[in-house]
From TrEMBL:
InterPro entries linked: ARM-like, ARM-type_fold, DNA-bd_dom_put_sf, MerR-type_HTH_dom, MerR_fam, PBS_lyase_HEAT
One Gene Ontology molecular-function label: DNA binding
Protein name in UniProt: Transcriptional regulator
SMART domains given in the database record: EZ_HEAT (SM00567), HTH_MERR (SM00422)
Pfam families xrefs: HEAT_2, MerR_1
Highest taxon in the source lineage: Bacteria
Organism field: Acrocarpospora corrugata
Domain called HTH merR-type: residue spans: 1-69
Record keywords: DNA-binding
């Protein structure tokens, strides 16, 4: 069969067949009287074998080795091809994600596209300073798609950059809440924590509703951050968890601040003071925890808190007594 016929039947161009001949992959069995290449059925079978192996991603050099080396074993090469394919898929997926994000930003022109690409690259930089600058610039300049900001916020480990990213998300309002809600269900405890911290920065009713859901999360860290945010927003359900945080010394200063914010409501001040006093009286509470509870009473207004501090100024625990006396002095001086 002549080269033109082989090309038509195999789908391999005549030029490629000549290239195979040059490389020694497929040498035509014979030549016609006029010197044209003439392929046998065995040659054609080899051509199909070459194309089959090429379809797996093998180079022509690897194809030749696979067909001609009797000792060749495919296992290692196939494993390598699997690795290369996974890397290629990951790269293509990353490109697709970047293109989708650029499209979501609805750039008006190529200058906008270039700015968005630069910001996306900066968000993925190894430099914390560049990431922080990108987060702060994402609101003032061409907006970075919210999906990119959420992904960055949920993966950021540097506290300063994380704070900038949470600020940027808060400026966008509720647009990132759905994605952050997905983060609350992540298998990673760190991602769940970053998600609730980001939600806490968004001052909206929808964010508050999501924080209420987070308050029932099985992850205690998520529940505690939700309690801090809910307390600052005046949600009384957070009180028991906030008091537990004071006792345990977990973000106890922030928890005391949240209790103080809640106690600004007259109907809650005495209730919170009573709960704090009840915990102080509990026999299993350690000395350091009793001092923290006493300190938490400092910014709780009302007669219940004042009476409790007066009693505590005579407490058997000298640390508690001194703390209560000092607080009473400050309250009386107001």
């Amino acid at each position: 069969m002549l080269i033109g016929d082989v090309a038509r039947r195999s789908g391999v161009s005549a030029r490629m067949l000549r290239h195979y001949d040059t490389l020694g992959l497929v040498r035509p069995t014979g030549r016609t009287d006029a010197g044209y290449r003439e392929y046998s059925s065995e040659d054609i079978r080899r051509i199909f074998h070459i194309e089959s192996l090429r379809s797996l991603g093998l180079s022509l050099r690897e194809v030749g080795r696979a067909l001609d080396d009797p000792g060749f074993t495919p296992a290692e090469l196939v494993d390598d091809l699997i690795r290369q394919t996974r890397e290629r898929i990951a790269a293509e997926t990353e490109l697709l994600t970047r293109l989708r994000r650029i499209g979501a930003a609805e750039p008006a022109g190529w200058e906008d596209v270039l700015q968005i690409v630069a910001l996306l690259q900066a968000l993925g930089s190894k430099s914390a300073g560049k990431r922080q600058h990108a987060a702060l610039s994402s609101v003032e300049e061409v907006p970075v798609p919210v999906e990119a900001l959420v992904e960055a916020a949920l993966s950021e480990t540097d506290p300063n950059v994380a704070g900038a990213l949470r600020w940027a998300l808060a400026q966008l309002g509720d647009s990132g809440l759905a994605l952050l809600a997905e983060g609350l269900g992540s298998r990673s405890a760190e991602v769940r924590k970053r998600a609730v911290q980001s939600i806490a920065e968004i001052p909206s009713d929808e964010a508050t509703a999501l924080l209420r859901d987070a308050f029932a999360n099985p992850d205690i860290v998520v529940r505690r951050y939700a309690a801090l945010a809910l307390g600052a927003r005046g949600v009384a359900d957070a009180v028991p968890t906030l008091i537990d945080m004071v006792v345990e010394g977990t973000n106890d200063v922030d928890a005391a601040d949240a209790l103080s914010a809640l106690a600004s409501r007259p109907t809650l001040a005495d209730q919170i003071a009573t709960r704090l006093v009840d915990r102080l009286a509990h026999s299993t509470v350690e000395s350091s925890a009793r001092r923290r509870l006493t300190q938490a009473l400092a910014d709780i207004p009302g007669i219940t808190a004042s009476r409790a501090l007066a009693d505590l100024s005579h407490d058997e625990d000298r640390g508690v007594a001194l703390t209560a006396t000092y607080i009473l002095g400050l309250r009386n001086a107001r």
